[in-house]
Amino acid sequence: MLTGKAKGVPGTPDAECVHEVKAKICKTTTGKWEVMNGTYTVTAGKCCSGTFSMKQR
Q1: Beta 2-7 vs 50-55: how paired, if at all?
Q2: Phi first, then psi: what are they for 25, rounded to 5°?
Q3: Any idea what the Cα angle at residue 51 is, between residues 48 and 55, rounded to 5°?
Q4: Using one digit for the tens of pLDDT, what is the confidence trace for 1-52?
Q5: What is the predicted pLDDT for the residue at 36?
Q6: Which three-class secondary structure state does DSSP give residue 37?
Q7: Start-end of H helices in 1-57
Q8: Which of 9, 10, 23, 35 has an alpha carbon within 20 to 30 A of 43's alpha carbon?
Q9: Cα separation of 26 and 7, whole Å?
Q10: Whole-angstrom Cα distance, residue 43 to residue 57?
């Protein structure tokens, strides 16, 4: 399980944003990495929250 915080980029409209990030990282039967059920939740600033997934090519 990956957990952490992501901060906005200085000098951009999202500079004040802070997100809590959580994701499950698994290795598939083909040996590729995959993120499932990823979420990002805003904890500071006026930004959005949501979900994400990623797959290794």
Answers
A1: unpaired
A2: -110, 125
A3: 135
A4: 999 999 999 999 899 999 999 999 999 999 999 998 899 999 999 999 999 9
A5: 86
A6: strand
A7: none
A8: 35
A9: 25
A10: 31
